[in-house]
Amino acid sequence: MKIGLFFGSFNPIHTGHLIIASYMANYTELDKVWLVVSPHNPLKEATGLIHVHDRLEMAKLATEDAERITVSDVELKLPRPSYTIDTLTYLSEKYPQHEFCLIMGADNLRSIKKWKNYETLLKFYKIFVYPRPGFDLTEWTQHPSIIVTTTPQMEISATFIRNAVAGNQSVRYFVSDKVLDFIEKKGLYRKASEKK
Ligand SMILES: Nc1ncnc2c1ncn2[C@@H]1O[C@H](COP(=O)(O)OP(=O)(O)OP(=O)(O)O)[C@@H](O)[C@H]1O
Ligand SMILES: O=C(O)c1ccc[n+]([C@@H]2O[C@H](COP(=O)([O-])O)[C@@H](O)[C@H]2O)c1
Known about the structure:
Elements: E1 2-8, H1 15-27, E2 32-37, H2 52-63, E3 69-72, H3 84-94, E4 99-105, H4 106-110, H5 118-124, E5 127-130, E6 146-148, H6 158-166, H7 177-186
Parallel strand pairs: 1-2, 1-4, 2-3, 4-5, 5-6
């Protein structure tokens, strides 16, 4: 099976992520998409990150009805911060029957040279890239490992959602109903002074 791995902090998972996962799972040669929740992205500060179990739970709630999308907790068992090449190596050894590919935005592709062992990544794994506004993909179109897609875009971010919740503004439709319910019930992303 050809599996596309979509890595992220998913703090929280939002409609922008879901459109990408759904497009990759249903409109490309990938058979399935695994959403890999990263406890700690090596290039980002861990501040503002809620507990990884809550992020994982929201990713599961958002995708529980999606036949071709699953959530992976593999990085919870691996050393931190989470380096993508280490996770890919671990998964490829554990599931030799699968071909693992990466799903990545054009923004990430531009900074890939800062990633651990990026040359190995580009040599051994196919990367399904989706466009991001302002990020030119011309230099990559001929690369043998890169598959440029025309994934539709929804330009929202998890930062926007966290700020909206902290400011008591609605995020309905920006996240799935079940995720919204989870955020409200657990009081996630609220200002410390407002928490029950
Ligand atoms: N609206 C979006 N459209 C396409 N890609 C996105 C979108 N939001 C996030 N991504 C990409 O999805 C991956 C995982 O996202 P991540 O969990 O870091 O969410 P984020 O919304 O970018 O978070 P934050 O605002 O906290 O930085 C990253 O590669 C990120 O660039
Ligand atoms: O392996 C690396 O060196 C590496 C460096 C930066 C980011 N990543 C992975 O890419 C994922 C998305 O990154 P970001 O910065 O767009 O949120 C993140 O969750 C990490 O798993 C991986």
